[in-house]
Design goal:
Blueprint (H helix, E strand, L loop, with lengths): L10 H12 L2 E2 L11 E5 L11 H5 L7 H27 L4 E3 L6 E8 L2 E11 L4 E8 L4 E17 L4 E17 L4 E5 L3 E5 L7 E12 L3 E10 L6 E10 L8 E6 L4 E5 L5 E5 L22 H4 L1 H9 L2 H24 L9 E4 L3 H9 L12 E4 L1 H6 L5 H11 L1
Helix pairs in contact: 5-6
The structure holds cholesterol (CLR).
The site of cholesterol has 19 residues, from α3, β3, β7 and β8.
Length: about 400
């Protein structure tokens, strides 16, 4: 029912929000939403969803067979989808609007578990348009993921005979590259496009659609097709994936089917023999550890947004707005000063690049293109910068260098 999940006092603001997004195309940072749908988490934190099962993240490095290794990379990718796209709805009751990161905002942390130490560096490298870059690595296993991403919004309205639905369609721009030192192998990961459904009722949630790919430098392609409700199973969050040698889509080595929120099964291409399965629903995540607020740098997300987040939690809209404007004004001043001095904000961990041969090589095989106009450049992790980053990053910097050697 229309507006069913919207608090009574917010009905008016929700319907004007819906009207505003009906004509909304483009930069998500300029979207303003009613207070009840605001989250206290910044988008720069979302990079951590890539490795909340560290042992699944590092598993490919221990596999000697190249095809099975590619399969383990696919399995890991699929294992991240629940965290990436459903965890907020599950925790908060619906998808919410994340805090819009400021330029230079950082999110740093690590996971310590059976897989050893897995480290995370996430940085907002552009504000207009918003772009987040990240690097996640595990030195013991010799595994590293780096990527950057942005979103492009376009509103779509479908009116059927009975159901009228409002959906926000988001194209993800950017990519991730997973690297294994031992085999000097790279895997180019493209990102699924998504829909925000449930806007009419006021309880938005994410649905994935279309296709995404993982292209390896070792000659394997994984193709993942998403559908809201599977036409075979009729279940939510259905996908179907195949892994095949480059260019031989009709001869899959493995197939993976199931629900990315629930469980999925991996079968051998021909015999249909089940070789593995994974249950995102029943597999516990390893919590990320983040420095205490006092130990954090001023640019670290949770410290920087502390007052805004506290006000949102209390439902104190005025204070939230006031604290947010302090951050925004400070940013405006910084940009003005940089402009006067003819320089650019220097990113702490990433650099803009115009040459990315590995990307070009792998992207060509799946018909992907580098589109740097939408992400303010192509961003790569800069180990040199990371090693120079002053404390409290020094420790991280040192092991970054080890991971790159
Ligand atoms: C960010 C990169 C992550 C995967 C991911 C998951 C959810 C996406 C998010 C990305 C971008 C921002 C996003 C969010 C879901 C909702 C939110 C699209 C792609 C938008 C800005 C919120 C719209 C507001 C309504 C909830 C009212 O790896």
């Amino acid at each position: 029912k229309e507006g069913a999940a919207v608090p009574p006092q917010a009905r008016g603001s929700w319907s004007s929000f819906l009207k505003s997004i009906a004509s909304f195309n483009g930069d998500l940072s300029s979207m303003t939403a009613p207070p009840f749908i605001l989250s206290t988490t910044s988008l720069v934190e979302f990079s951590s969803y890539w490795a909340e099962h560290p042992s699944v993240f590092v598993a490919p490095a221990a596999e000697k067979d190249p095809a099975k290794r590619a399969l383990l990379v696919l399995k890991w990718f699929l294992s991240t989808l629940k965290q990436q796209y459903a965890s907020r709805s599950e925790k908060l009751g619906s998808e919410k609007k994340p805090l819009n990161p400021f330029l230079g905002e950082l999110f740093l942390g690590k996971w310590e578990d059976a897989a050893g130490t897995t480290q995370l560096v996430s940085e907002q490298v552009s504000h207009h348009p918003p772009v987040t870059a990240y690097c996640i690595w595990n030195g013991n296993a010799g595994v590293r993921l780096q990527g950057y991403n942005a979103q492009k919004a376009s509103f779509s309205r479908t009116i059927n005979v009975k159901v009228s639905s409002l959906a926000q369609r988001l194209q993800q721009i950017g990519h991730a590259i997973y690297h294994i030192d031992e085999y000097d192998e790279d895997y180019l990961i493209t990102l699924p496009s998504l829909h925000i459904e449930g806007l009419i009722t006021g309880s938005p949630y994410v649905e994935l659609n279309r296709t995404s790919y993982i292209q390896s430098s070792s000659g394997f392609t994984a193709k993942i097709d998403y559908s809201g409700k599977g036409w075979v199973s009729g279940k939510k969050n259905t996908f179907s994936a195949t892994l095949f040698p480059d260019g031989r889509e009709k001869e899959p080595l493995y197939t993976v089917d199931g629900q990315w929120t629930d469980e999925f099964t991996i079968k051998e291409g021909k015999g249909k023999k089940v070789v593995d399965q994974f249950s995102p629903k029943n597999t516990k995540t390893t919590p990320l550890s983040v420095a205490s607020l006092e130990q954090q740098d001023e640019l670290e997300s949770r410290r920087a947004w502390k007052k805004v987040a506290a006000a949102i939690t209390k439902g104190d809209t005025d204070t939230a707005g006031y604290e947010k404007s302090i951050i925004e004004n400070r940013q405006r001043e910084l940009r003005k000063k940089e402009k006067e001095e003819g320089r650019e904000w220097s990113r702490r961990f990433f650099s803009r690049t115009d040459k990315f041969p590995m990307f070009q090589k792998l992207a060509g095989k799946i018909g992907e293109q580098v589109n740097d106009s939408l992400t303010n450049g192509v961003w790569i992790f800069d180990a040199e910068k990371a090693s120079e980053a002053r404390p409290p990053f020094q420790k991280d910097g040192a092991s970054v260098l080890r991971a790159q050697e």
